[in-house]
Design goal:
alpha+beta, 2 domains, Acyl_CoA_acyltransferase, acyltransferase activity, transferring groups other than amino-acyl groups, eight-stranded mixed β-sheet
């Protein structure tokens, strides 16, 4: 299962690698320490076994391990990578919600904001959740329109996130709530703030990605009206 073309394009454009190189049917991302999504090769057209070799060689040239990000319906590529001893890990779901599902009620006062550039406290919240400065460079380099989400609860800045628009689609990334303030509804209000901001900036669709192992986050998003629009996993050689 993969997203439709507009959603797939927004998924890539709003979380860009520091550099990309085309290797036949693959686009290989240079992550520069910013995580697997931007350090992977993704199929962007017809590919051959030689293209897989070229993508692996490009990873090696950048000092990255071989890594492919594959949509769940691409049986041919999954089979070719398995034949090379690569196995899937970190299955991830792309979810989408109707914009009206998130903009049907007003936000409580001073609960969530969409601003740019991010405040120092937002960067601290991201870092506390493992979204390192190297990963934060990704959304610093993403094209506008974009915004940093700030969530507040009990007069405390407790959540941070990122939203950016490509075409009609707004993608939410890097949502983090400090542990002491989780399961109190803050992530939901941040999602709603992202939707209001996105609607005001011309987006008609809103989406995000969440690891399939993250059941609590999936439950929050499902409760807001998000449903599965695609699935992918990373494929790498067995350790």
């Amino acid at each position: 299962m993969r997203p439709d073309p507009a959603l797939a394009a927004a998924f890539e454009a709003t979380w860009p690698a520091s550099q990309t190189i085309r290797c036949g049917g693959f686009l290989v991302g240079r992550g520069a320490g910013a995580g697997e999504r931007v350090s992977s090769a993704v199929a962007v057209g017809p590919w051959t076994d030689a293209d897989i070799d070229a993508a692996c060689a490009q990873h090696a040239a950048w000092g990255q391990p071989p890594l492919f990000r594959v949509w769940g319906d691409d049986a041919a590529l999954i089979g070719a990578l398995r034949a090379r001893g690569m196995r899937a890990h970190t299955p991830t779901m792309v979810m989408e919600a109707p914009m009206e599902a998130l903009t049907d009620r007003a936000l409580p006062p001073v609960t969530a904001f969409a601003i740019w550039p991010p405040l120092a406290i937002q960067r601290q919240i991201w870092a506390a959740g493992g979204i390192t400065p190297a990963r934060q460079v990704v959304f610093d380099s993403a094209p506008h329109p974009k915004a940093a989400l700030l969530g507040r609860i009990r007069d405390r800045a407790a959540g941070a996130g990122f939203v950016a628009i490509h075409g009609p689609v707004a993608m939410i990334h890097a949502v983090e709530v400090l542990p002491a303030y989780r399961r109190q509804g803050l992530a939901g209000w941040m999602m709603r703030q992202a939707a209001f901001w996105a609607r005001d900036h011309g987006a008609t669709r809103i989406a995000l990605a969440v690891a399939e192992a993250n059941g609590p986050a999936q439950a929050v998003y499902a409760g807001l009206g998000f449903t599965a629009a695609g699935r992918y996993a990373y494929h790498a050689p067995d350790a």
